[in-house]
Each structure stands twice: as C-alpha cells, then as structure tokens.
Amino acid sequence: MAHSFPSNYVEARQSFLKAAHAAGAQLEVCLHPQKGFQSEDMAIDVAWLGDRNARKVLVTISATHGVEGLYGSGCQTAWLQQFKSENLPSDTAVLVIHALNPYGFSWLRRVNEDNMDINRNHVNFEAGPPANEGYEDIHAWLLPDEWTPASQLNLQQQIMGYMAKKGVRAGTRAVTGGQYRHADGIFYGGTQLCWSNRQLNQLAHKYLQHAQLIAVLDHHTGLGPSGHTELICRHPVDSQALALARQWWGADVTSPASGESASEVIDGNVRMAFVHLCPQATVVSIAMEVGTQAQTQVMASLFADNWLYQKGDPHSAQGAAIRQQVRDAFFVDTPEWREQAMTRAMEIWQDAFKGLSSTAV
To answer: Which tens digit of pLDDT belongs to each residue from 137-152?
Structure first.
C-alpha cells in the first residue's frame, strides 16, 4: 500500500478523483479561486459513498495543513481503491473531503493563501479572537533581513532561550498555540473565516444534517515520534465523545486537555467545528497525527517557510531548498515510514466503522 502516497498535489488530485470515480462515489468540486504552484487548478474535492440519509457518517479530511496532504490524500485514495459497497455497514455513509487547504498542498506549505493556519481559524470572530500574549515576545525574531545559517542559528538560540525562560509548555503555547495579530507571522489564525473553512461549513450543512452520529478523521503529520500515529482528541475531558473515542480506538487516543498529548490546547480547530456545525449529532473527532522529524527540525522548516513567503523568492533556488525542507519535515519518504503510516491509517479507518456500527443512535 505504500505506493499509494502521491509525490505532489497534481498527482494526488488525479489519483483521488480516479479512485473516487471507480468506487462509484458522488463527487463535488469546490474550485479554489487561485492557481497552484504548477499553474494547475486547485480544489477541495468531495466524495460521498452510501445513503444520503444515513444516520451514521464517517468524515475524513486531508491537507488541513496543506503539505500534510501527502499523507492524508494517500490514505484517502488507498481506502477508496479497496472500497466495496457491500462492505459499508448499514445506515452508514462516508464523506471524503480531499485537500481542504489545496493551496498549501500545491505549494508545499502548511498555511493557506492568506498565510493562515486554517486549523487555528475556525473561531467565533464576532466574539473576538483568542489572545496569545506570549507570541508577541517572539514575533520580531522571525523575519531577519536575510535567511542565512547565521540568522537561522540566532533565531534558534532566541527560541531556545525563550523556552528555557518560560518553560517548555508555556513556550510551546506561545509559538504554536495560534495568534491573530500578525498576518506575516507563524500559526496565524486570521481575522475572519477563510475560504477553506467557509467551504467546510457549506459541506457540513449540505451533507450532514441528517446524521445522528459522526466520526471525523483529520489526517496530520509532523508531531511525535517518527512513524507513530497519535490520535489527538480535543473533546472535553468528561465528555461522551472522548469516552467513545477511547472505546473505538484504544490506547493511542490522547487528550490535550488532560496534558496527555504532544499537542497544545489550541483554538479554532477544524475538526471540532463539526460539533457546532452539526448540533443534532454526536460528533467524535480525532486527528491522526503521524510523527516525522524531531520537533526542532519541524519548527525550523516552518520558520524558513514563513520567511520565504514574507521576504524571499519562492521560485528561487533558495525557495526550492526550503520547499524541500518543509516536505521532508512533514513526510518521511522511506519505505518503512510509508508502510507504517499507511498500515496504521487503514486500521484506524476500520476501527471507526466498527465504532460507528457498535454505537446506538
């Protein structure tokens, strides 16, 4: 199954659409207003399998963080390639959302066309964005005039010094928790709902209003031990949803709110939006988070990427090198990693179906 992972967005989209068509899915295309890195069309492609009035629905999402779609798209396509309609449990359907952030996927970035982390963007902006005062301490360090080994080392030392001063948890929260003031910064959540999340809201309204039980699998990479899949569950500690997640998927389920996860507690989470978008349903959402490189390497790639699109030239030789750095940080292109990631993903998908089937609505 390892061969199912695509090498870029164009290949990923072609493979996904071919597999979805062969599986007999109903397809919808949400065309992005911009063109991709290779001047290609970009889109959120949506596949529906099963009864449109099914009370139980499995929703899967890829490329919330664009470049991480190399993993997520591969998983979605691999599942579609082995799909048989007779194996779909009764009263159950599947909504496959391919490339939620197609810009980031095409350009090999984590963010979208507005430099937003769309997984920090699904907040109630009318109530005012969340605060992250810690980020104010570090923002000025992120955009040196030049991106050289010396400036990178200086930035790394500044961040490490900040972590040592504030503590790892507080420091990590400041850097990665999301911020809403600096459009030229990292983990930027924006000032209004972005294109991808507006499309997501419409899809939830169109496809999920009949559902009474919804499982959401959001495919991610870049956090944790290389090759290991952590199942990050952001539902409240004492909630039915977290209890169901632990029942369905077992020991790999972690709760950031309980301090169990490698991830910080964050605002504006995409998969958690389904709780509000589908109030008639019980929603059980997890992130399938596959580890890649050491966290210092992953963060270095994000610092480099942000600098490139604020002060550099994405089409230069330096741009190509940084794009490769980002790709390597979020997809480990070895047979061992690919096989481990895909095998575990297909187990998680299967456990989701078992969980949906075993839970009464």
So the answer is: 999 999 999 999 999 9
Paired tokens of 109: 């970035």
DSSP assignment of 11-76, as one string? HHHHHHHHHHHHTT-EEEEEEEEEE-TTS-EEEEEEEEES-TT-SEEEEEE--SSGGGHHHHHHHH
Angstrom distance (rounded) from CA 67 to CA 47 = 21
Q: Which phi-psi region, left, alpha or beta, contains residue 268 (left: φ > 0; alpha: ψ -120 to 50)? A: left
What are the beta bridge partners of residue 28? 46
Residue 60 to residues 4, 49, 96, 317, Cα–Cα distance (Å): 17, 12, 5, 36
pLDDT at residue 1 in the model: 45
The order of strands in the sheet holding 253-254 is: 26-35, 41-49, 92-98, 56-61, 213-226, 282-291, 229-232, 253-254
The predicted pLDDT at position 265 comes to 63
pLDDT band at 260 (very low <50, low <70, confident <90, very high): low
pTM: 0.96
E strand segments, the chain: 26-35, 41-49, 56-61, 92-98, 213-226, 229-232, 253-254, 282-291
Is the confidence at residue 120, as pLDDT, over 80? Answer: yes
